[in-house]
Amino acid sequence: MAFGDVKSAKGLGELNTFLADNSYITGYTPSKADLSVFDALGKAPAAEYVNIARWYRHISSFSAQERNSWSGSAVPQVSGASGTTAAAPKKEDDDDVDLFGSDEEEDAEAERIKEERLKAYAEKKSKKPVLIAKSSILLDVKPWDDETDMKEMEKNVRTIEMDGLVWGASKLIPLAYGINKLQIMCVIEDDKVSVDELTEKIEAFEDVVQSVDIAAFNKI
């Protein structure tokens, strides 16, 4: 298969037409015939020669060592700009630039970028502050009678310490017959403090505490 001067418009046109129906210059595997045409071209063709560009990218994906091991014969009379016949495979030119690049290289680069983005996202997510679920609770602590020392009651209640529990403001609310109840605010971390356990701890002061009710409960 001879194409003449593959750097001329005519030669490129003939080669582009041939590669529209053929994957290689001869046969079904790359050979020295492909290498002779590849070397005669010298560089990637213009974008308009789409079939040559596809074939050129594919041949470029092989290393120089792999190309030199190919069998077969070079295409006779295939010429470059100087009109000389392409001979044995030439040494890989470090200055040649494949403007199209191989599909394998593009896939590898896309995979690398994907991995870098996933890694960056994971690092960003790991540094994001964890949202701690909290609740604001208003407790009504009722005494036994009007003789109960309410200051002592509040003091006892505030002695309760739990990881994730913070006591807030308090006040006395009149009930009846001179009896007041202690209304006290607290904030808890839901994962650390159980409301039932907290009320049980308050009711453990049974000498002064008759009962504990939840007056208000709000998620923060």
UniProtKB/TrEMBL annotation:
| UniProt entry keywords in alphabetical sequence | Elongation factor, Protein biosynthesis
Q: Which residues form the Translation elongation factor EF1B beta/delta subunit guanine nucleotide exchange domain?
A: 134-220
Q: Which InterPro entries match?
A: Arc1-like_N (IPR053836), eEF-1beta-like_sf (IPR036219), EF-1_beta_acid_region_euk (IPR018940), EF1B_bsu/dsu (IPR049720), EF1B_bsu/dsu_GNE (IPR014038), Glutathione-S-Trfase_C_sf (IPR036282), Transl_elong_EF1B/ribsomal_bS6 (IPR014717), Transl_elong_EF1B_B/D_CS (IPR001326)
- Signal sequence span is none
Database matches in CDD domains: EF1B, GST_C_eEF1b_like
Looking at the record, the residues that make up the Elongation factor 1 beta central acidic region eukaryote domain are: 99-125
- Spell out the molecular function terms from Gene Ontology: guanyl-nucleotide exchange factor activity; translation elongation factor activity
User: GO CC annotation: what is one?
Assistant: eukaryotic translation elongation factor 1 complex
UniProt cross-references to Gene3D superfamilies, sorted A to Z:
1.20.1050.130, 3.30.70.60
Which stretches does UniProt call biased (Polar residues)?
Answer: 72-85
Bias (Acidic residues): 93-109
Looking at the UniProt entry, the stretches that span the membrane are none
Q: Where is this region: Disordered?
A: 72-111
Among PANTHER family, the record links this protein to: EF-HAND AND COILED-COIL DOMAIN-CONTAINING FAMILY MEMBER, ELONGATION FACTOR 1-BETA
Q: Which family does it belong to?
A: Belongs to the EF-1-beta/EF-1-delta family.
Name this protein carries in UniProt:
Elongation factor 1-beta
